[in-house]
């Protein structure tokens, strides 16, 4: 059963909108400023980055969401709830320092405590009781907004559009509420109102009336204010490149120990693990947890401790010849850090098929989440790959698809997949394992219609399948590191004792590299991108956590040591 906002409020209202007790209010008062309020006063407007949250002392404050009708010249608002004495405002955007999603307007005059975001951060880090109240409320409030049917944007898309799927996945994984309108009578009415054509799909219509035709992820992030502004002159203690499990773990431990942390990712928190439908062998979750849920919980911890996250930032070059280090990004921005943790992960290898690119998102997918599952409900599908991700996808899809064909080039699954997944696959009546099999061709017009595969050296046979999930091997995201740190023959970052003497010619210190430290002091690699790592989520989390103690040590040394120029490495 799908939970609605009303059901969430009915069941957990005391957690979503808790009433602070006098002793708790007294502790907050030491961090806040008291202000008198007047009827009609707007304390915070939707779409504005908050600089503070408010605790109601007397009177009443309405929390208003943008209405579902976002296309009128004057945006209407819907009352979500009314804050009374003891209630406080805010949701996850307050901790991230990004734009809020609701308006706060005074209904009855009274007084509030205004708590700056810096003081809020101090409270959630140092006051365990208040931290639990604030964090639980903020998380549940964002969930309520995702379920509410109100949003700052409307997406008009098509199930036959790969870019529509990309935008949906981007908004979903970055926890941005949106209204989805498929090609129906309502969609045609909206298109006509904004003088748009069906060829313009996918189209995003913002609450302000702005129209975005098939925007890139970076444009979308900027328009929605997903990323917090950062001064170009800021030098962070630690830059983390990649927000998968390894990067998130490093951010939690580094920020909780007082380091200034800025983490970036090309798409959304969670990395490749964020696309996993169900993880059942991660410690502490006996009934399993989705990769998206695990990433959301981890992100909440990172922002609680003050780490900053920027998405749609693609690293293109590491400046390692001077310290602090610099990272250049494809969007023209640059960040500087005294230490770097490389957690940029890997990507699934694509098949060398000339037809592949035009079917991506139109029948060919690199993730198996609820978004993709809805597109192939009741259909026959194929999953390519023999690792845990492919196994999780096959089991997940088997619950809604008619039949799942699992294609692997090897002789079986035992060498690359956890035993519990193998048993699930063997026991599922609608999963067929095809060993010694490779995809030979893809066919279709506007979308994928047939898949040809061959067994051993046999002739390709075309199958009438319209959905193909690719989870084949992994290539590391390390192109941006060329000329800086040592890589192995496959492009993975070499660290610690795996580094040879010849690979340490630019090493200026008398000590050997720390565990997970690359061939330049102060630069570390963790998770799937590291050569020799165990490709499991628990291992990535462990590496991200462990490396922080070595980051602290390196920061104490780098002021007196500089990497040798590349020219001296000859």
Mean pLDDT across residues? 89
Quick one: biggest sheet? Answer: 7 strands, mixed
Strand content: 25-35%
Report the CATH architecture of the largest domain. Answer: 3-Layer(bba) Sandwich
CATH topology grouping of the largest domain: FAD/NAD(P)-binding domain
CATH class bucket of the largest domain: Alpha Beta
Number of domains: 4
Structure, explained:
The chain is an alpha/beta fold. The chain has four domains: 5-124, Jelly Rolls, CATH 2.60.120; 153-224, Glutaredoxin (3-Layer(aba) Sandwich); 235-345 and 478-569, FAD/NAD(P)-binding domain (3-Layer(bba) Sandwich), CATH 3.50.50; 349-474, FAD/NAD(P)-binding domain (3-Layer(bba) Sandwich), CATH 3.50.50.60. Helices cover 28% and strands 25% of the residues. The strands form six sheets. Strands 10, 11, 12, 13, 14, 15 and 26 form a seven-stranded mixed β-sheet that branches. Strand 6 (153-156), helix 6 (162-173) and strand 7 (179-181) form a beta-alpha-beta unit. Helix 9 (245-256) runs parallel beside helix 10, helix 9 packs across helix 15 and helix 13 (388-398) packs parallel to helix 14 (419-427). The model is unreliable at 566-570 (pLDDT under 50).
